[in-house]
Amino acid sequence: MKIGYARTSTSQQKNSIETQIEQLEAAGCDKIFTEQKSGKQAENRKELKAALEFCREGDTFVVTRLDRCSRSVKDLHTIIDQLNNKNVGFKATEQELDTTTSAGRLMIGLLSIVSAFETDLRAERQADGIKSALEKGVKFGKKAIVLSEEQLQRAIDLKEQGRTSQEVATEFSISRSTLLKKIKEYKERD
């Protein structure tokens, strides 16, 4: 059995989903799942999940283009792995990608190699960027909260006047725990 999946990102793409359905029917799909949802994350698409769960051993999962079921190579591989575990083929009609053939399996293998390479390059660029920024004196992480001695003394005075720690912290736009920590550090210096 061939199970089709058609997706558009918005309802304004009505013609696009109708075209996908026609193409899936022409490809011999017996059942077609459709939805209008962003393709960024597969786990947020209920109809994609339903289509993948519906597939049985020996079936073929069919889309018109890879970007209809996946927006990243990683996402695509997760979907194909799920299908492979069920012994279900995968086919993208417009890209002539078919995992039921040797050439299709080769293409998926090449895509996974390219994906791993891209991930490595991205990590290397990120590491180079961080190193360069550190060399230029850029500081990472949260900025240290600095309260002047006058602010700390005012905070202590407000607390002694009966204001709660949370009220005082809110006045200085800091968290209660930071306020208490700063007051403790200030008192220990004296």
Folded structure, characterized:
- With 190 residues, the protein is of the alpha/beta class.
- The chain has 8 helices and 5 strands; from the N terminus they run βαβαβααββαααα.
- The protein has helices spanning 14-26, 46-54, 66-69, 73-85, 102-135, 149-160, 165-171, 176-189, and strands spanning 2-8, 31-36, 60-63, 89-92, 97-98.
- The protein has a 5-stranded mixed beta sheet with strand order 2-1-3-4-5, sandwiched between helices.
- Helix 6 crosses helix 8 (176-189) and helix 7 crosses helix 8.
- The N and C termini lie far apart (80 Å).
Q: What's the topology here?
A:
Elements: E1 2-8, H1 14-26, E2 31-36, H2 46-54, E3 60-63, H3 66-69, H4 73-85, E4 89-92, E5 97-98, H5 102-135, H6 149-160, H7 165-171, H8 176-189
Parallel strand pairs: 1-2, 1-3, 3-4
Antiparallel strand pairs: 4-5
